[in-house]
Amino acid sequence: MKNFFKGFSYNMKGFYYLIDHKGLWKYILIPLTINVAALVLFIALYAGYFDVIFQSISAPLSGMDIQNPEGFFDQLLDGGWWVVRNFFMVILFLLSLVAAFVVIYIFCSVVNAPFYELLSEKVLKQKGVLVERPFNVKGLLGEILHSLKIEICKLLLFICVSVILVLLGWIPVIGLLFSFLGFLFASWYIALGLCTYPMVLDRRPFGHIITWARQNKMVLTGFGLPSLVPVLGLLMIHFQVVGGTLIYADLRDQSL
Predict the structure, then answer these.
(1) Which residue stretches of the chain have pLDDT < 70?
(2) Residue 187 dihedral angles phi and psi, to the nearest 5°
(3) Are 213 and 188 in contact (CB under 8 A)?
(4) Distance CA 55, CA 37 (A)
């Protein structure tokens, strides 16, 4: 748990670093505008289709009542199941809200990737981790292809693991455990994405990125946790890009 809370603390480290280095503020204006616009659209759509979403979530559990309960024990069992069923409905609704937000979060991260890479690059140079490279077209194309390859690999990883966890999440009773694991995976994956920006700039291969992320899984899970809070995650991603860069700068050749 020590590593979990240490990872969580990098959110504040990123916040204070960005506040103290006002020269970095200009790099967050465009992505902040895009995030706010996406957030407003997300809230409007979710509010507009709230009834449909909730009915879809509750449908698998709504037909599981005891029909015409007779006697005290049948009524007691029916009442207990009503409590359990509604508890699961609330949990599934909250998880669906988080899942929808994670999708929006990832979408905004992809759209804003060039701005976040630039922000991360400036932080790495200030920390002395990345040296200035002379510009050339071949090098630029190589960086673009490398970044694209990493993003495709990350996307495939997210899709495969998410599909498996969603399917396992529908198993009665133990499905809630897999839903919780999905929550932790989402936190780890988002943190991985935030730490990928400096690793792409450092030309690290995908295998190295995943190995490093596995070695620091508790750090990344703690770091990515605030991102799962609806609204808050999109508004603080700029601090987290800096925080993720600081994590990589501190731990690039080691695990905690």
Answers:
(1) 50-82, 85, 89, 92, 131-140, 173, 253-256
(2) -65, -45
(3) yes
(4) 27
Helices and strands (H and E) in the chain: how many? 10, 0
The answer to whether 119 and 242 have CB atoms below 8 angstroms apart is yes
* Angstrom distance (rounded) from CA 75 to CA 78: 5
What confidence score (pLDDT) does residue 35 get? 87
Q: Tokens 């409007």 identify what position?
A: 44
From 156, 154, 223, select the one nearest 188 (Cα to Cα). 223
Compute and round to an integer the Cα radius of gyration of the chain: 21
Question: So where are the chain's domains?
Answer: 2-47+99-251
Q: What integer pLDDT is reported at residue 150 of this predicted model?
A: 82
Amino acid at residue number 234: L
DSSP for 21-52 reads -GGGGGGSHHHHHHHHHHHHHHHHHHHHTHHH
Alpha helices in the chain (DSSP H): 2-20, 29-48, 50-62, 71-111, 113-126, 137-169, 175-201, 206-215, 217-224, 232-251
Predicted model pTM = 0.75
